[in-house]
Specification:
- The chain is an alpha/beta fold and 321 residues long.
- 34% of the residues lie in helices and 21% in strands.
- It has helices at residues 3-11, 15-22, 27-32, 38-43, 54-57, 66-86, 106-118, 133-136, 150-153, 194-199, 272-275, 282-299, 314-320, and strands at residues 49-53, 94-98, 123-127, 160-164, 182-186, 204-208, 217-219, 224-228, 235-239, 245-249, 254-257, 263-270, 306-312.
- The protein starts with a helix and ends with a helix.
């Protein structure tokens, strides 16, 4: 079949079908369809899944020049504002804004959050993390300046919530936590969270780079749990009777497993951060090896459980063998 004929077939579809198609694309790909023709320039605006990521719109080359970076960020924010202004009457299911160093744009961010609340979105992403944190893990709490307004806590339609690098978040303020299915928190202080874990119906929980965790038990009916580079105090107990995917990466704590699923499809442990420690004494390695062996035995053999897929880092193999 001639590719041009197939392209014509797609273009001949009614707008309502085209909107369904582009709503399945990533937002970056959706925006790219606006270059296809004059008709597509109006169709892409009707997507129900909107996600403005600074990294998707800025060329990597602009980061090398501070002036170019500032101008590119201003252009990105202007584009976001103009895009939102054009779709005031449109239904939106997903809305996301991801921008680093948000202090310059607090008024704009506040208006975008208000827009998402008015649309009664089902999924909301508010991510203001710095890309460098992924590599260096040196979060400066003074850089967390965006506060979550009460209107977000009151948004009863929310089924998915992702927050990154926000100043404060109080889970106890959520008016309808029972409807949330997917939650993700990153680069923030996470407190008052344990009561929400006990009462929620989450299916997926992700915690990445969070500080000052004031709970030592992760429990609930989640099917997927991913914990990365978090600041637990001394130990952590997992009580996840329905978990199917369990991932952990970061420092080594004393982990206990209570009432876990008998067969877990995917387990992943990554302790490579320990491989970078300067303390390479035999005593240190022996202690870490003992803790890691206890971790695996407690999760699997001693607990009478199995993992369909078990992925471990080279450091774990080095100290356990």
């Amino acid at each position: 079949m001639d590719p041009s004929d197939q392209a014509d077939r797609i273009s001949n579809l009614p707008d309502i079908l085209l909107v369904l198609i582009i709503s399945c694309l990533s937002f970056k790909e959706c925006v790219q369809t606006s270059c296809l023709s004059k008709r597509w320039r109006s169709v892409y605006l009707e997507t129900r899944n909107v996600s403005f990521k600074e990294s998707d719109f800025l060329s990597p080359s602009v980061y090398a020049n501070p002036i170019s970076w500032i101008r590119a960020r201003d252009a990105f924010v202007d584009y976001v504002c103009s895009w939102v202004a054009r779709i005031d009457d449109q239904h939106i299911d997903t809305f996301g804004i991801s921008v680093s160093y948000p202090k310059t744009y607090l008024d704009v961010i506040e208006s975008l959050i208000a827009f998402a609340v008015r649309k009664r979105v089902k999924a909301l992403v508010l991510d203001f993390s710095n890309p460098a944190w992924t590599t260096f893990h040196d979060v400066n709490l003074d850089e967390l300046v965006v506060e979550i307004p009460q209107s977000v806590y009151d948004l009863a339609t929310l089924e998915s919530l992702k927050l990154g690098a926000v100043k404060q978040f109080d889970p106890t303020k959520l008016s309808n936590p029972g409807k949330l299915k997917t939650v993700s928190f990153g680069w923030m202080v996470l407190t008052n969270f344990e009561p929400l874990l006990k009462t929620s119906r989450f299916e997926s929980l992700t915690i990445n780079g969070c500080r000052e965790l004031d709970f030592d038990t992760i429990e609930g009916n989640m099917r997927k749990v991913a914990i990365k580079n978090c600041d637990f105090s001394i130990n952590c107990t997992f009580d996840l009777p329905r978990v199917d995917i369990l991932k952990y990466s970061g420092d080594l704590f004393r982990f206990e497993f209570d009432n876990m699923n008998t067969i877990i499809s995917e387990v992943e442990f990554d302790f490579r951060v320990l491989d970078n420690n300067n303390d390479e004494s035999n005593d240190s390695t022996t202690a870490e090896g003992g803790m890691l062996c206890h971790l695996l035995n407690n999760l699997l053999d001693d607990g009478g459980r199995t993992a369909t897929t078990l992925t471990v880092c080279p450091f774990l193999l080095k100290v356990c063998i």
